[in-house]
Specification:
- The chain is mainly alpha-helical.
- It has 9 helices and 3 strands; from the N terminus they run ββααααβααααα.
- It has a 3-stranded antiparallel β-sheet with strand order 1-2-3.
Length: about 200
């Protein structure tokens, strides 16, 4: 498995981070990202910016949230493919649809989940940065970002992210944990039976 993009492929980070951070958890402002995420603004060309803003506009969410969601989904799907578990995708979709909190959520987490579910575009005049969480930016090259945009499935990304937040995991952690659980649960079943019931199988 690759440890990340080579220096020539790496995204160009903008110095200084977000110079005017918005405390969107206390104000009546659109939620831009997961609670607690540190965001690294990234430099993108005009075409990439337009495509990301288009995805965000169709989903009625801020572009920062849209960028993070499509990239995290792309990374998760890539990790599943690398492990021969891409057949898990329909099962993960069903698991995500059925995800429900088992206990009360914090106010910031609940607000983020509402933003994921209902959508709320950034207000005109407010900063609308394009960036990625520090926790994943090392894994993302310019080519990765382009591929994530090309294969963007925002409804799936929102559903998986919602389930991951409810489970207390990142999107990729949630996807891999579900795939492992599904594979473990089916380990003793006949192979034909597992395939017929759509359970994850190594490719």
């Amino acid at each position: 498995m690759s440890d990340g993009p080579t220096p020539s492929q790496a995204l160009r980070l903008l110095p200084g981070g977000l110079s005017e951070p918005i405390d969107e958890w206390d104000l009546d402002l659109p939620v831009l990202h997961r609670p607690g995420d540190l965001i690294e603004p990234i430099a993108v060309d005009a075409a990439t910016s337009r495509r990301l803003h288009g995805i965000a506009a169709r989903g009625r969410i801020p572009v920062l949230m849209a960028c993070t969601l499509v990239v995290e989904l792309h990374l998760a799907v890539s990790d599943l493919q690398e492990r021969g578990a891409s057949a898990c995708t329909p099962t993960l979709d069903a698991t995500a649809r059925n995800a429900r909190p088992a206990e009360p959520l914090s106010a910031s987490t609940a607000k983020y989940l509402r933003a994921l579910s209902t959508g709320r575009s950034a207000r005109p005049g407010l900063p609308s940065p394009i960036g990625l969480p520090t926790r994943i930016v090392r894994r993302v090259s310019a080519q990765t970002l382009s591929a994530a945009i090309e294969t963007a499935d925002l409804p799936r990304a929102r559903a998986w992210e919602r389930a991951a937040v409810i489970d207390g995991r990142t999107l990729t952690e949630w996807a891999l944990a579900c795939a492992l659980l599904q594979s473990s649960a089916s380990a003793d079943e006949p192979r034909a039976g597992r395939s017929a019931h759509g359970v994850c199988l190594p490719e």
